[in-house]
Amino acid sequence: MPISITEDIRSITELKRNTNAVLDQVHRTKRPVILTVNGKAEAVLVDAKEYEKISNAFNLLKLLAPAEEDIKNGRFTEAKEFFQEFKRGKEISS
Hints:
- This protein is α+β, with helices and mostly antiparallel strands and 94 residues long.
- The chain has 2 domains: 9-46; 49-89, no CATH class.
- It is built from 4 helices and 3 strands; from the N terminus they run E-H-H-E-E-H-H.
- A 3-stranded mixed beta sheet has the order 1-2-3.
- The longest helix has 25 residues, at 48-72.
- The radius of gyration is 24 Å and the shape is elongated.
- It starts with 8 loop residues before the first strand and ends in a 5-residue tail after the last helix.
């Protein structure tokens, strides 16, 4: 979803004047629209379904962060060793 600097940057004034057209663009392109005030980025308008996808992906990344930290700090067990210990703990024979 790369942003088009010629199409996806709009002023708040343009949003006020052409709300339906800007919303149609967001829904049609699935790209965010950056809203500006006095030439500076102020807000981002995103399609609701795209926002939900982004939010879900971000939440998944937050869940993975502690695991990545554990791996980085050497706090992990190799899969083979883990399953051997698991089988012993549950008294499962191979």
